[in-house]
Records
---
Amino acid sequence: MCGIVGYNGLLDAKEILLKGLEKLEYRGYDSAGIALRNEAGVTIFKEKGRIADLRKAVDEDADATIGIGHTRWATHGVPNRRNAHPHQSASSRFTLVHNGVIENYHLLQKAYLKGIQMQSDTDTEVLVQLIELFVKEEGLSTVEAFRKTLSLVHGSYALALLDSEDTETIFVAKNKSPLLIGVGQDFNVVTSDAMAMLQVTNQFIELHDKEIVIVHRNHVEISKLDGRIVERAPYTAELDMGDIEKGPYPHYMLKEMDEQPGVVRKIIQAYEVNGELAIDEAILQALNAADRLYIIAAGTSANAGLIGKQYFEKIARIPVEVHISSEFGYNMPLLSEKPLFIFISQSGETADSRQVLVKVKEMGYPALTITNVAGSTLSRESDYTLLLHAGPEIAVASTKAYVAQLAVLAVAAYATAKARGVALDFDLKQELAIAATAIDAIVDAKETMEQIAEDYLKVARNAFFIGRGLDFYVSLEGALKLKEISYIQAEGFAGGELKHGTIALIEEGTPVFALVTQQEVALNIRGNVKEVVARGANACLIASAGLEEEGDCLIIPHVHPLLTPLVSVVPLQFISYYAALHRRCDVDKPRNLAKSVTVE
Ligand code: F6R
């Protein structure tokens, strides 16, 4: 989703901003722009499409040492050059980039800006016009006008503002949307994600909601909206440029799928204490004190949550409900007496999940976040955090984070079971190590999945994924992966449910992927496959070793029955990847999607 960068220093701002925007591409966007400030004033370059297009449009000789940049994921107004950021006030004095949604922009426009001819269809433009209005009509300073404008706003924002009459400052503010200040010798930067500015610094200052920052070249001043000054020390981002480069891979998604065995091993290491898998004592107590867990997440993370429910119920014997975050906050079920909320989020920034967290905290309930990003908003605002240790996930389609979520959920359920004295007949550490080796075997056999994608999906218009028990939940993730990157309409179903309606869609050649990893329902799912084959489906069965039958499409290594999702999802990821490649889709940046979904 939208990304922001800013630079105030001594070097060529243009190059730093463009490189920063390239690093933010993974978040998803449809247009981009930069504003460069030099003695002559502010110059804006913006384009619909990719950063590569913006690069071509930027005047090579445009030199400036202050600037701001933006990638836009359209919310208000179609993706085009006119709606691309930066936006300017009527006199062009003020230039603004914005990430988030100004919910009351229409009301503000009606109340204050009737006489102003808007240049775009965006909510953002209202802010920059208001700032100018308050400076002109009320004689406020830029920072006073900035504060006044923000005090009127309902919604989410990360903002960077230039004033053409101030050659030294970038004005910054944040509410609900992520934003960091990067600090260095003789420069300071602004960024939505540390990754974008690792090129110049690894020292970052977190911003909290409703804070304003005056960013000079040599210092930054943070204050609350009401003017109170805030002191906050920078932290060191534990990120390596190598983690965020593609290296020899053609796509991040392929790199990240290949990394999955290593991620599972890293999780074993990270959670091992005295030879046993363990989690923080305070988290254990919170899990133990709860009479019901409420897992809240979106997309792939919600699919992982469904398997997490099975882990907590089957291993730790705690009842669990799983809810998608966009619904939960506005349609809350009757809660138990002592709930613990578990937020699962790769990015830790998903706005839908965050709005639930805010409500839950207002209600006084404890919250645990399982995330890949230390210091992310959900992590900061929860009582407890468990990290995924998956390393940066850059491809929009989540792969290694999903596998990491399953592994960490298993560790948490297992540690809780031990603490509660539940008798366990397996050693999770050993079983996760076996699962990592099983994923290795699948990664090594990717050509088989490439062939399956070619055979089953090259010309498909739609596809079904079916399974029973845990396999059903993995089917949901398989379908999500396929649809988001190949644009083939795909649905995941419980094998037994198809005949209650959806089987009507099966026609000659419809691809149906069926998972067979759960012994107790293996015959039932095979029966469901027969039903669809009898109606013309082109079925591909993916079975665990020991449950295979002649004619199955792919045999995956046997692992502990509860851990099969970590393994069975991997061929589905690869099949989706190759299906998208065969169809010449932009695998890492699928259309309309954003990596970090920071608007509700
Ligand atoms: C799908 C995908 C999305 C995310 C969802 C939640 O591949 O990546 O469905 O899972 O947007 O994002 P996080 O996990 O960052 O909260």
---
Amino acid sequence: MALCKRRGFIYQASEIYGGINGFWDYGPLGAQMKKNLREAWWQDMIMRPAWGRQGPGGKNVRCVPVETRIIQHPKVWEASGHVGGFNDPMVDDKETKQRFRADHVWVIFAYEETLIANILTQNSERLAAGETLPISIPPTFSVVAGSVTEALRYVIENVREFRPYRKAEWATNDLFDEPTVAMYDKDGRGFVANTLPLIEVLKHYSIDVIPSPATQKTGTLTPPRQFNLMFHTYVGATASEDDKAYLRPETAQGIFVQFKNVVDTTRVKVPFGIGNTGTSFRNEVTPRNFTFRSREFDQAELEFFCHPDESVEWYKFWRDFRMEWWKTIGLAGENLILREHEKDELSHYSQGTSDVEYRFPFTAPGFGELEGIAHRGCYDLTQHQEHSKTKLEYFDQEMQLRLQAEGKSKEEIAQKSKYIPHCIEPAAGLDRGVLALLCEAYTVDPSRPSPELMKFHPRIAPIKAAVFPLVAKDGMPEIAEKLHAELSDKFWRVGGVEMDEKQSIGKRYARMDEAGCPFCFTIDGETAASQTVTVRDRDSGQQERIALDKAGEFLKDKLGM
Ligand code: GAP
């Protein structure tokens, strides 16, 4: 964060007024870097989707862009479910005034096996009748953690052994939903423990036995309360309830509400995608972790519409492509994973969702979501069709011709050639993308004179090259200026080319290392006579000498253009 501020990647919004929680601005380097990320997405998802690969069944991948507004008709958000359901349950710590997302805090309760056995035996009749037992006995021990991994790590470190606990061993009741573990402490005593999000725990237990994540004390938490995450505003001067509107919480809905217009006014044919990028707003109750959870952030979303029978194949196609894509722009390695959601995590309409997750320093050893790839079925178009009373079915002419050729009945042809397409949604966060790329690039190498450097992939690097005269005399600045002008002319579309003649050459290299500039060209005492320059590689620090008039080609090659 210090480097981000110092080098002009990211600043606190309204900093001179003390800042505003959940809002961040980009400085010169950050703004260019984010633009590079958005453009990489645009090029690889819209202009040449999936790098020109063919999709399932050898079909071409075609995508078109839209740019839709932040403010839409309020009914859009009723249809999408955001007005009714876009809520986060929160609990407050009454002592410290800290607020926690109840579904993000994990609690392990451990009870002695004999205690649980007694409760279950004593209540066997109630359990047999299908009743749930509210347990309000103090646990033998409890631990509160920010993630399941953290919670389980505590168990591993603090008990002698543990094994998965099978619910059937005890009784049929839902006190101990998965994941549950049986543990044995150092004295050989057995425990059963369950790991659940705070919100689930609160449903089962009396609030007074839940330790606060802030203090580890019991009795200081409020019951969970719902917060709607949508910002609202008023359209027009009167600011009455009738004029209430929302700032979009996602760019995706703009695509669904323009689906019909795009189909009617362009030549797209299923399967095809519509992409939308732009700013979304969520009144996050606990904005935190730098830009990771902001209240204003940019998304890059694609809605890919396909025939229902092909949707699972397309889901797999986009899921795998998106994972591969993040790797090609610099997130290769063990910090990036693809996490397929469990069946019970999926919405009723979805046949699959996966997240591309990155191990941010603040989530480690866990991971944080960078992008979600969801099979959304026909849910959104159906919702908008119902709420707007506008038909959003797609007429599949190719299907009609095929069925006609196969000699199918008129009824079957009519029925099968009109349908609501299914939708696959790769939804990426550009700010989270920038943050992940910054974290991945940040490297400390104590063996270098200036140990901090940013190892950006050349496509993402905000400055592509720098030109330095070794000293500001002997004709070197003039040659440097000429080379700088030539390179700027060639590369301005993809990023900056800097010229710097102040300070020692070591300091100038260090400045460029911190900015993540991959190549520095230096005009030195030999240049005029031999018409050569040195090129320094940021990551190795190694220099090579190349022909002055080949500098542009060298850079073009290295930038993969
Ligand atoms: N249309 C689906 C959708 O919006 P999401 O998982 O809620 O799905 C997609 O958001 C992406 O947007 C996330 O993977 C994340 O990268 C980004 N995002 C969501 N909330 C964010 C926040 N508060 N701050 C920064 N980025 C956020």
